[in-house]
Amino acid sequence: MSAEETVGSVTKIPDITLSDGNKIPQIGLGMLRIDDDEVTDVVKSGLEVGYRHIDAAAGYNNEPGVGRALTETGFNTGEQRKTLWVTTKLKDSEQGYDNALKAFDRQINDLRLDYIDMYMLHWPTPFNWRSGETWKALVKLRDEGRVRTLGVCNFLPEHLERLHQETGEWPTINQIELHPTWQQREVVDFCREHGIAVEAYSPIARGADLDAGDGTIARIAQAHGISPAQAILRWHIENGTIIIPKSVHTVRQRENLDLFGFSLNPAEHAEIDALDGPTRAGHDPMTFTYA
To answer: How far apart are CA 119 and CA 133, in angstroms?
Structure first.
């Protein structure tokens, strides 16, 4: 991981090197639950304050708006495109070899890009498992140069093992719900043992973890003169986790990037580790589908 640098007024975010040699910025901007009309300005704002990692998905129903932002800012082609990491995800309803290839054509057109940095399976849907055949379509896209790297979301160890058995590959990234009160240590340990980078969505539990630990987060934040959100996000950074906090507000977007002028001491980090609990904020990968 490279050291943080500031170029002009924009912070350069450290990269995480993936198992295939690609490098992903450790902090990205999430696109979940933003209307297509609104998302264009959100992406423009994020790019202006320094994000170089956009996390999109077909299931968010706003890829055309993301594409408009990339085109209007010039980040869809040329030298600027080379500085940007764009992730998108396949809808669960479009799994399957032929369906996935057709869906990708639509998505890359909506995003107005020549290639996607990472294409992901959004949910494992073990009750309707098609990840193996779908992965083979993703490999074809990677071999053609239309996708740089392949990942999954919400996969538990048993799903990762089944995918590996059917395809001979491990994904480069597993994007999972991960925050202080839902740390998924078994999943994280499995991923690390198999060279799979961990990416956290809902890194502050949609705001619920800001008050975690009967004031623990607030106390740590106050000691450093930072916000509770920054304390949690710094904990993720120090764990080597890729994070994709979401905000539609420029001030908060900037705050979520400002994580490198301080560090947690070992006792503070351990206090956040100790907040792990039994309750997720999102959905159960064994039963959920994001059609």
So the answer is: 15
